[in-house]
Fold:
Amino acid sequence: MVQIKPLLLSLTLAQVASFVSAAASTTNGQDYWQSFKSNINPLNVTLPKITQTVSINPTQECTYYDPDTALFNIDPTEWPSIWEVATTNGMNTSAEFTALYNSIDWTKAPNIPVRTLTSSGSLDFTGYDANTDPDCWWSSSVCTVPKIADVNPDIYYCPEPETWGLTYDDGPNCSHNAFYDYLEEQKLTASMFYIGSNVVDWPYGAMRGVKDGHHIASHTWSHPMVTTLTNQEVLAEFYYTQKAIKLITGLTPRYWRPPYGDVDDRVRWIASQLGLTAIIWNLDTDDWAAGVTTTVAAVEESYTDFITMGKNGTFANSGNIVLTHEINNETMSLALQNLPAIRQNYQHVINVATCQNITYPYFENTVSFQSFSEYLGLNTTSSASSSASSSASSVASSIPISAASGSSPSSGVASKVSSLSSTSSSTSGAVKLSPAYIGLALVAVAGLLI
Ligand SMILES: [Zn+2]
Structure:
C-alpha cells in the first residue's frame, strides 16, 4: 500500500540570514527587491472578513471587492495597465524602473532576436532550426538547459521517485475559496504561479495562498508569449509582478513560470538579472482547454494516464512536475476530482520548493520551506538536506516516457509527456546560496505539447 504522509509546511524564522543577503547581492540588479514596500507579515496573514464566493459552480465566478486600504493602497497610476504589457501606463519611464534598467549591463545580454507571432497568433518558427536550437527555445525544442553561461537553468521535474509536483497557474482569483479550502483540509501545498494583474485585482486570493503555506511564484504581469517581448518589456513583466506579489503578500519570489512555457536564453538571461529561475513541467494536463479547445473527457483521460504513471514504473527513479491551473471552475473541479486518486497512486504530492529542496524560495529570509527530508519527517538537523541531496544524486537512470522525437509543440502530435534522462546533484549550501539551484540535468529532448 502506498502510504501518504501528511504534508506539513514549516514557516520558520531563517536561522542564517547571511545566506539570503549573499544571494541577493551577487549581481547588480538583484538588490531591487529591497526597496519594495509591504504592510503584510507573511508569517501572520489575517484575511479581511468579506463575503467571497465559495462555490466552484462556473456560473458563480468572481464578485468584485474593494481591498482594505489599511493593508495596501493600490494606486492605478503606479502600476502597469491590468492585463496589458507591463511597460504600459508609463511604467517603462518610472524612476524605479529606469534605475533598475540602467543597473543592468545590457552589453552582456545575449543577442537573440525578439520572436514574432503569425497572423493566427501562434509563435512563428520560420527560419529557426529546432535541431540545433541555438537559443534553447523551449517552445521550439523543449530545451531546459541554457546554452549560454551565467543563466539559471530551468527546473522541470521533481528528483524524488513517485513524486507528483503539484502546480497551479494563473491565479489568484476571487472565487477559488472552495479549491483552497480543499487543499487546506487535505494538508496539500502547491506551487502557485500568480499573474501580477490578478494579484492586484484579487489580492485576498494571493494572501490566502501565503496564509495556507503554498509556494508562491511569478507568472508575469500580463501572461504574454514572453519571447515576443523586447528586453525592456520582459524586464517590466518581471519587475512589476515581483513588486505586486511583495506588496500583497510580503514576499518576493525567486521562481517564475513562463506562460505557455515560452522561454529562451534571452528571457532566461533577463530573469537571471532579477534572480529568477524558471519552473517548467514534464507533464501537461491541458486542463485549461477543457470545454474550450478540447473536451473535458480528453483532459480527464490525461489525468488518468498521469495518475497511472505513479504506479506503473514511469516514475520509479524520479518524479514529475504537472501543469494544471486554477484559472476557472472547470480546471478547479478537475483538480478536486482527481486529487484523491493522485494521492493514492503517488508516494508524495508536494510543492516544487520542497521536492527540489529549495528551502528559501523567496528573497526574504523570514519564510523557509521544508527540505524533502524534513517533509518526510526524517532527521531535521543539519544532515537533513544532505540526506535529501544524496537521495537525489542517486537519480541517474534514463526514464523514457512516451518519446515523440521531432515533434514541435505546435505539431499536434498527441504526446503531452517529455522524455527525459536526468542526473542531479546538489548540496544544502548550494540550495541556500544560489537561486539557480536545480539538479543539473541533461534532457533528451522529445516532443511536448503545451
Ligand atoms: Zn498561465
Remarks:
- Residues 169-170, 219, 223, 259 surround zinc ion (CB under 6 Å).
- The two ends are 33 Å apart (CA to CA).
